[in-house]
Specification:
This protein is α+β, with helices and mostly antiparallel strands. It contains 25 helices and 28 strands.
Length: 866
């Protein structure tokens, strides 16, 4: 006889299983429905003729069209297929409308975009563009809009989570984000505020230590021996050198900065804000080209990698564009047409941040601080321009405010008001908590008004330059294209199929008054510190087929001090990586063996650091006090200054260096409520300099007034901190502290990255990979960890490409994630292992080779009657 109820159990199990299967099927459908169609045919309203989209095994598209309009229409359409939500983020960042979808977490970024006038400048810039470039931008928008219109029910998952749909794209959306890219490429205004504070609160000596002179052991791009092949052809050198330290002091005294002694200054971005890392565009990149007379093929080889904050997806979108007047392959920015880096049939190019000083800050005098209507200039009062801004914030009332403008630009005091929460966070960790943490809570409405002058405020037509660059066939056309490059400050490296190589600096750089360094805020009312125009393009540094047989730009100083114009006095990146590149290129040439693409691949992955080699001497000199310390120091003493994945010395040094920086600079940062240093690589250079002085005041801990610490005290303390950290996290046996466990890379979503844990975990990359490199090696890797909790790489190379005109594949490429942004898509992170292992995939330009690598082919056809 059956027991009562036993027959129901299998039914229950069956129902549960059915529910699970149905749920899983629904979730799979829900997640995959935004995936793009990549095979077959699609009829698309707006196209004029047939377009073919060929994708390789990594989902990288090559687009073939019959005319310019269809080519860029298809670029907008295909980019939207893979990266629509990234495009949406980019235009909202540029327009200052992130708060509409992200709520309060987007407010700081919107405030920045509004104060710097990204949209306002876009309107002027678009008016200044030629009709041909406008047509390219419009075609891109038309293609994106065609995709949006026909995929309202298949939008990326992020739109569903945030409960909104994208509006149609306009050319101003494209232009606004371009202006934001120019902003994050030029952050001198933050330097100005920081140095002024350090000088005011800690003294000029300490300010100068944080603005160290260029190390003569590190090369300029155009060295003294190369000047005769560059600017000396048309410019006379300076016969007397400027005493920059004396001029700094003069500027400081005359700049009306006394108010800074009682006020703190901070950057505009909350460290918890999801796009903070994006500010590091072009932070530490490298590009070089070697002449064909030294290569195995007899043709030049060009190498390039650009370093930025790490996200999934990568900032870059690989694409080939073939049709009409264009035939090129390379890297575009989702949200804009053309390619920014890459090659065409005749030339190739790469670039790094030139780091010119294109911003200045002025302390203004207003008629009525509580309700100003006029500002003072050379003894006369002039009316202030006022513009009302409204920031819509999801879930909150709109933020309405006015921005006032002088002849120099917007008054930005309202941008710099930061809440107390960051100060509390800093106090919680007791020490310098990180380069993005803001330690200020000033009441800026009581401070004297600061305005900012920026070259981009005059408008920029960089998209015209980009269009000409994409079509350039030789050195002259390349330079002509760059003569219109007027927003991002870049050092371009060039190579062509005729065997030529070259270098060109490009952007608008102001000519300052003789008594104006541009390193600190100065008086806006006196008229003494006005710009005298811009350096003519013909006077900007260049090189063409130099006798060295190579050209290289690695964020290093552009020229010697004999160059009569001054780009900047605050080279934000020390020149150790540049020294590595130059030394290794010259060593390859000296060997006399033909140089290959493989040699350039190995060079891009080289992780030796001259800076680490110098600083490690102080680590190795520490006296151990127990067995663990003794064993750890044995690894440090044997270390070769290479940040290999299997290195134990790299783990010990990196952790010690993090604490050394914290213990040296952090006490003053916190006590005097200075803004956290925005460019920590400068601290490495400062450390190298002040470590030579055992009793430098920077080593004295202001939190221990009963004693005076020296260099050796701080080095010892930092070592003990490091050993404690490594022992707790990886065990007490230093033999197990290999670098592959310590430094790893995991990519996070740019919006959901570190927010709600459940959503964050869904959208982060599945892979977490060991990652070699350091902030001062050619293979660049930076971990934003102060004090160190974990060494997750937050800044690194986000793309690499190698171009050899003598090889059939033509170009090798890799990006940090994959072509797609869609969750679970096979191309979302399929390049991560290649990227972490310094490997590449072919990205040919010839259609025959593209077809040979084809995995999917989609044909786009004009809709009926169109």
């Amino acid at each position: 006889m059956k027991k009562k109820g036993t027959s129901k159990f299998p039914k229950i199990i069956g129902i549960v299983c059915l529910v699970l299967v149905v749920t899983a099927a629904f979730l799979a459908w829900f997640v995959t429905k935004p995936w793009p169609q990549t095979q077959g045919e699609l009829k698309v309203e707006g196209l004029k003729s047939k377009v073919e989209v060929i994708r390789d095994k990594y989902g990288v598209p090559n687009i073939y069209a019959e005319n310019d309009y269809d080519l860029f229409f298809a670029q907008g359409y295909v980019t939207a297929q893979d990266r629509l939500f990234q495009m949406e983020m980019h235009r909202r960042i540029g327009s200052g409308t992130m708060s509409e979808i992200a709520g309060q977490s987007g407010f700081d970024m919107d405030l920045l975009s509004r104060y710097f006038g990204m949209r306002r400048i876009a309107e002027k810039s678009y008016q200044d563009l030629d009709d041909d470039t406008k047509a390219i931008i419009q075609a891109y928008c038309d293609g994106a809009n065609a995709y949006i219109k026909t995929h309202q029910g298949k939008l990326p998952l992020e739109f569903t989570i945030l409960n909104f749909k994208p509006a149609p794209w306009t050319p101003l959306d494209v232009m606004s984000f371009s202006n934001y890219m120019a902003y994050i490429n030029a952050l001198n205004w933050q330097y100005e505020l920081y140095y002024t504070q350090v000088a005011a609160k800690l003294g000029e000596q300490m300010a100068n230590e944080e603005l160290p002179p260029w190390d003569p052991d590190n090369p300029e791009i155009i060295t003294k021996d190369l000047e005769q092949y560059s600017w000396r052809k048309y410019l006379a050198p300076l016969t007397t050198q400027i005493d920059t330290h004396q001029l700094f002091q003069e500027n400081f005294q005359s700049g009306k900065n006394d108010w800074l002694r009682n006020n703190s200054i901070s950057g505009p971005v909350d460290p918890n804000y999801f796009m903070a890392n994006l500010q590091q565009f072009g932070w530490a990149s490298g590009t070089w080209a070697i002449s064909g007379k030294y290569t195995a093929t007899g043709k030049p080889i060009l190498a390039c990698d650009v370093h930025m904050g790490l996200f999934i997806p990568s900032f870059w979108y690989e694409i080939g564009l073939h049709g009409g007047r264009f035939d090129m392959s390379g890297y575009s920015l989702p949200g804009g047409p053309l390619i920014l880096l890459g090659r065409n049939q005749d030339i190739s190019w790469g670039f790094v941040n030139l780091n010119p000083d294109v911003q200045d800050m002025y302390i203004e005098t207003l008629d009525n601080p509580s309700n100003p209507t006029k500002y003072l200039y050379q003894g006369k009062w002039y009316p202030l321009e006022k513009e009302q801004e409204i920031i819509k914030i999801k879930g909150k009332a709109p933020h309405v405010f006015d921005i006032l403008y002088t002849r120099h630009g917007p008054i930005i005091n309202g941008l710099l008001k930061i809440s107390e929460k960051n100060l509390k966070r800093a106090k919680a960790v007791k020490k310098y908590p990180g380069n993005w943490t803001i330690l200020s809570s000033s009441k800026w409405e009581k401070s004297e008004p600061i305005s900012i002058r920026w070259t981009v405020q005059d408008g920029c037509i960089t998209y015209k330059s980009l269009s000409l660059l994409n079509r350039a066939r030789n050195w002259d056309e390349f330079r002509n294209a760059l003569s219109y490059w007027d927003s991002l400050g870049e050092s371009f490296i060039y190579a062509d199929n005729q065997g030529n190589i070259g270098y060109q600096a490009a952007t608008k750089i102001p000519i300052r008054a003789k008594n104006h360094l541009g390193t600190i805020p100065v008086s806006g009312s006196s008229g003494e510190y006005e710009w005298q125009g811009y350096i003519p393009f013909e006077h900007l540094p260049y090189l063409y087929n130099p006798p060295t047989g190579y050209v290289a730009a690695v964020n290093n100083k552009t020229t010697t001090d004999a160059y009569p114009y001054k780009f900047t006095y605050d080279w934000f990146h020390p020149g150790y990586r540049a020294r590595s590149v130059v030394d290794k290129l010259e060593a390859l040439i000296a060997k006399g063996k033909p140089i290959t693409v493989e040699d350039m691949r190995l060079l891009e992955g080289d992780n030796f650091s001259y800076a680490a080699q110098q600083l490690n001497e102080y680590l190795a000199a520490i006296e151990p006090e127990n067995e663990i310390e003794e064993k750890a120091l044995s690894y440090a003493k044997q270390w070769d200054a290479r940040f290999d994945k299997n290195s134990i010395g790299a783990s010990i040094f990196s952790t010690w260096l993090n604490y050394l920086d914290t213990n040296t600079f952090g006490d003053e940062q916190l006590k005097y409520r200075l803004w956290g240093f925005a460019f920590p690589l400068k601290h490495i250079e400062s450390l190298i300099n002040i470590m030579k002085d055992p009793t430098n005041k920077r080593f004295d801990d202001v939190d221990t007034p009963d004693r005076i610490e020296t260099r050796d005290d701080i080095a010892q303390r930092s070592f003990k901190n490091a050993i404690k950290f490594l022992s707790k996290k990886y065990g007490k046996d230093p033999a197990k502290w290999d670098f592959s466990r310590v430094q790893q890379a995991r990519l996070y979503h740019p919006l959901f990255g570190r927010g709600i844990p459940v959503i964050s975990s869904i959208f982060k990359s599945n892979q977490k990979l060991p990652f070699s490199g350091s902030p001062t090696s050619i293979a660049f890797a930076y971990c934003n960890t102060f004090p160190p909790k974990k060494f997750n790489v937050t800044f690194a190379t986000t793309q690499r490409h190698l171009v050899s005109f003598g090889d059939i594949d033509g170009m090798l490429s890799v990006i940090s994630s994959g072509a797609s942004m869609h969750l679970l898509n096979p191309h979302r992170e399929d390049q991560m292992k290649l990227w972490a292992n310094i490997e590449y995939h072919p990205m040919p330009i010839a259609k025959e080779e593209v077809t040979n690598l084809a995995e999917d082919t989609l044909t786009l056809l004009p809709a009926a009657g169109k």
